[in-house]
Amino acid sequence: xxxxxxSPFLIFIVFIIFISLGLPDSVMGSAWPAIRQTYGFSxxxxxxxxxxxxxxxxxxxxxxxxxxxxxxxxRFILFSTLLTIFGLFALGFGQTTPYxxxxxxxxxxxxxxxxxxxxxxxxxxxxxxxxxFLHGFxxxxxxxxxxxxxxxxxxxxxxxxxxxxxxxxxxxILLLAYFTRDxxxxxxxxxxxxxxxxxxxxxxFLLPLFYFFYALELLVGRFYSSFAVxxxxxxxxxxxxxxxxxxxxxxxxxxxxxxxAQFWTGRxxxxxxxxxxxxxxxxxxxxxxxxxxxxGILLGLGLAPLYPLGxxxxxxxxxxxxxxxxxxFNMAFANFGMxxxxxxxxxxxxxxxxxxxxxxxxxxxxxxILLCLKIYQKTEKSV
Length: 383
What we know:
globular; Growth Hormone, Chain: A; 383 residues; 16 helices; single chain
């Protein structure tokens, strides 16, 4: 990691660009009850389309090391943002399955490329606190799009209106990236560091297993609105609003972590936030609108620091090449969890109803909490 001094203006631009990563993420979850009516899809299709999108996102991470040898970071950012705009256009114009598939392709490749490019840049140049703030701006993007979709699905409007508003915001971010592209004109080549021939043992897969179950963040965002509409029989707008509260809790939690990481240990932060996670999952069982709003906020707050702190924990537990291998498996398990789990979970809700939603989310939350307690038992380096 380099210690290159970055100007506040450049840091601000990176934060704004990371908003564009979050903007499309809550569209499908917040507005799915309305979108599926337009397209004529069943409830569980959101899991399938989500998996397709994540599959293309994963493909972009595989392509990145090869293109990084030739492209500069500004080219990655411009190309990736443009792809997400194409994906939003396909979603907004379409009413048939081919349009949805095209949207998943462009959104998957575009978001995946933005994610790995900005994370690579920030890992080289940002401090721990700035990285947490960076993930907070992702939350701003998700929360903003969720509130936009809540506005759009109000009576007398349409979910397509929300998609067009989000598309306009993406275009503005693309213009910002274009006019400041000289700031990012550095080679995106992946650094080659010392390799380790040591084989990973069972205990090395504890963190990757955590990232597999971290798909809970996606599951809540994807299915919360449908649970509120299909099972609790709330309006489309209220269902979208509850999901907005969830993403807002995630955003607030990420920014809080940016501050608390300066004087709390990672273990303390995780213990506090997993308490929020447990309480939020518990409140999901109660069919009262006010408690569902509280559940959404607490689930977001609880999950907020777990992803970025987990990556840092790798270097607290392992050294050298082992840490690099574990990081790689973390990303692979996280992508696989988000790719795979929405499909059986969506099928389960389709077959047995959304009454199971609180139980499924509670079980995932318990699995994450137990893994966190195990991971943060000790932080000394090992092999």
